[in-house]
Amino acid sequence: MKFIYFNFLESLVEDFKRAKKEILIITPYIKREAANLLINQGRSNSNPSLHLITLPPGIEYIEGATDPAAISDLQDAGFTIYLLEDLHAKIYMFDRKIAYIGSANLTNRGLGISEELIGLKTNKEILVRMEIGSIESKKIREVFLNSATEVSVPKGWVNNIETLLGQLEDVPISITYKETLDKIRNSLSMESKQVRFLKELVKEGKIKSFDHITSGMHRHAYKINEQHAVKVFRSKQGVHDNHTYSYQITAPTAVLIHQRKIKAVLFILEEDPDHFVSLPSGFLINEVLKKEYQTQKNKDWQIKIKRMIDQSLWLSPAGRNESYRIALSKYEDSFIIKKK
After folding, report:
1. d(C-alpha 340, C-alpha 330), whole Å
2. pLDDT confidence of residue 167
């Protein structure tokens, strides 16, 4: 355990660079300069999954404690954005092994960025860097991530907010605060990537309907066509030049697949437009969810799906030689619940 009283950005950047699987930032307030410094200085070739939890639009947008542009920048950098009411905690967690917990927001003054750089005095803050185990990391995710709402920042959102805030200058503040904040909140898409993806499948006629399963199936479970329970996974790393997409199947989800409670898993290939593969439970049990492929530390299954130059798709489970590949083209872009 290490107590840090200054140079917060420098310490966070080092662990940001070292992270290989996941970065989770929990901060009520965000400023653009601080966010971009952390992103740009912390870049690496590991491409971990990135998650940000912050407050929903509120008075801090009007008073300048949070920059909407910072949230938009973080989404553009690959962060999935979540909103959580009544958030006060400040936590920076890397690979579920290292956590910084303390008082410092992801802001210029919070991270102690120099007065010369931003022209502001820094706050008196503290962060405690500590090694954590699976119990602590799981609890952090349960308390914060599992109760947060995933959102998507639409194009033009920042400009729209600036216009709304500019209108406050000419009218009584007490009258317009609530109306302005309601407009800002309503401008965010409060739907997850998974929901928007399934809506497109309905629109294209690939499925008839879907409903969110809210209990017993963990996150991102849906009932398709009023009968088939499925999971919908996004790539942990988004789109890359080599068109390789990474996914994680956790042990609890694997149990549901083995029990045939989950009939299929839909893996979104985050291309333009989005494509997907639908892998039936039988395929996953026989080809992917083998004991020898399970990671020793997290007891999960890490898989990669790659789009080749000839447009074919191949799946590679972690734990096998990279030359071992399973053809997926026959499972692409159609909803399949039985192994072909």
Report:
1. 8
2. 61
249 three-class SS: strand
Residues of the chain with pLDDT under 70: 114-120, 164-191, 236-242, 272-273, 319-323, 339-340
Quick one: 35 and 160 in the same domain? yes
Alpha carbons 254 and 248: distance in angstroms, whole number = 10
The two tokens of residue 268 are 């979104």
| Separation between Cα atoms, residue 104 and residue 10, nearest integer Å | 13
Query: How many residues does the structure list for the chain?
Result: 340
Domain extent, residue 166, equals 2-187
Q: What is the pTM of this model?
A: 0.63
Question: Tens of pLDDT along 26-66?
Answer: 999 999 999 999 999 998 878 888 999 999 887 777 778 89
Residues 158 and 216 in one domain: no
Contact 248, 317 (CB under 8 A): no
Could you tell me how many helices (H) and strands (E) the chain has, helices first? Answer: 11, 17
Residue with tokens 């690496």, as numbered in its chain: 44
Q: What is the DSSP letter of 144?
A: I
Beta bridge partners of residue 30, listed in sequence order: 106
Please tell me the total count of domains within the chain: 2
Helix, coil or strand: residue 124 = coil
Q: Which residues of 313-332 are buried (b: 16+ CB within 10 A; e: fewer)?
A: bbbbbebeeeeebbebeebb
In a shared domain, residues 147 and 271: no
